Amino acid sequence: MSGLAPRPRSLPIAPTAAPARRGLPLAPDVRAHDQTWRPGYAVWELTLRCDLACRHCGSRAGRARPDELSTDEALDLVRQMHELGVREITIIGGEAYLHDGWFAIARAIRDAGMTLSMTTGGRGMTSERAREARDAGIQSVSVSVDALEPMHDALRGVAGSYASAMDALRNLRAVGIPVSANTQITHGALREIEPLTEILADQGIHSWQVSMTVPMGRAADEPDLLLQPWQVLEVMPMLARIHPRLAARKIRLWPGNDIGYFGPYERILRGGMPRGHMNSCGAGRTGLGIEANGAIKGCPSLPTKDYVGGTVREHSLKDIWERSPALRFTRDRTVNDLWGHCRTCYYAEECRGGCSWTAHVLFGKIGNNPYCHHRALELLRVGRRERIELRQAAPGEPFDHAIFELIEEDWPAELLEQAKSVAASGEAWVGEGKSTVES
Fold first, then answer.
1. How far apart are CA 313 and CA 315, in angstroms?
2. Beta bridge partner(s), residue 42
3. Is the pLDDT of residue 320 over 50?
4. What interhelical angle do 161-174 and 149-156 show, nearest 10?
5. How far apart are CA 161 and CA 258, in angstroms?
6. pLDDT at 202 (0 to 100)
7. 176 backbone φψ class: left, alpha, beta (φ>0; ψ -120 to 50)
8. 357 with 371: CB under 8 angstroms?
9. What is the mean pLDDT of residues 95-111?
10. Is 322 helix (H, G, I), strand (E, B) or coil?
């Protein structure tokens, strides 16, 4: 059994997205500051069509957007990305291979000299499609695997999705495409991440990206899927335990942008980054997100409503990048934009509130991210912790979010000493297999 509650039916599983907003304002002038930054990396949603029905899908993928770019329009966007300085692109969905022109688009990206990867749930990554991906020039494919088989299938909404993901890894390797894996850590699957390590390593992956499920889209409908902020005290030591096991097999463990921040394992987990630790949010500075209808935002995960700066059907990509206020927010962010514990944190100037996506989909605004290892440790030192409670449900649209309340409280007396022990030693949480949120 998966242990998941029945899926809520109060919202449509796969809503139809609204067309891209038109007439979004651009600044009249380009500042030198905006020309300094260039998006070296872009994540491109080719279509919102999907062949899975994942409970934690932030985009509520399933149906194509009503106004998705044609193949010819997408090919012109490839040209614009190359001219803007994009060096690497990951194509996603939905499922990218469900776009009729995915092969031609992928081939154009490679012909322009840009590095190309794909992220997939793997359900339709047959041997034939794997050969097509190789012939298109795709250089690496990341397959989503979220837990052991029963839990994975329950999370992905389709029986057999775990077996399909494993088949996808094998099919891709068989045609010579390097493979990696990506995993969202949900509350119910927290204890399945370590057992999953050897399974994925045996599939020949070169890297493994792990992130925490963030309350966007369908995940906002099921708060029980979410880790509580204090559970980073368990997540970070777990990743530190996994790291040497993977390193011994020459596999890179790659924490997502929503994990960590300035705790004792930063050097272990992010020592390869330019500064040897996590930096502030790079949305609109080094990163670019593209929705299937040509809407442009600074990060692919950010909510559409608040962060799309324009569409390439109205403006050039260069003009949107340089002149859209919605893409300038991290370029202009200062410590004065932070609030809560982030405002007074020792690392405030360096971190500037951490992951913008996490903060916004929790609270409807950026500048305070409770999923921070340093912060959880500082609170633990004085016997305190934070938890979130749902206060306003999400409306049920792609890339939407709910509103949560952040509650700071004393650690339960019966758990405090064990929490301190886990934080100090890096040992696994013990006690009938329960995590802190279940106690």
1. 6
2. 89, 288
3. yes
4. 100
5. 25
6. 98
7. left
8. no
9. 98
10. helix
Q: Which residues contact 335 (CB under 8 A, 6 or more apart)?
A: 343, 348, 349, 352
How is residue 283 written in tokens?
A: 């949305």
Contact 14, 98 (CB under 8 A): no
Q: Which DSSP helix (H) or strand (E) runs through 363?
A: helix 356-363
Radius of gyration of the chain (CA): 21
* pLDDT exceeds cutoff 90 at 86: yes
pTM, rounded to two decimals: 0.94
pLDDT band at residue 263 under the 50/70/90 scheme: confident
pLDDT in tens, 130-156: 999 999 999 999 999 999 999 999 999
Tokens at 171, concatenated: 């099919």
b/e map 347-381, b = 16+ CB within 10 Å = bbeebbbbbbbbbbbbbeebbbbbbbbbbbbebbe
Other CB atoms within 10 Å distance of the CB of residue 81:
24
Q: Which amino acid is at 32?
A: A
Angle, CA of 303, 37 and 288, to the nearest 5°: 30
Distance separating alpha carbons of residues 232 and 255, to the nearest angstrom? 12
Cα dist. 206→181, 252, 328, 371 in Å? 8, 6, 34, 27
3-state secondary structure of 115: strand
Angle among Cα 96, 396, 438 to the nearest 5 degrees reads 95
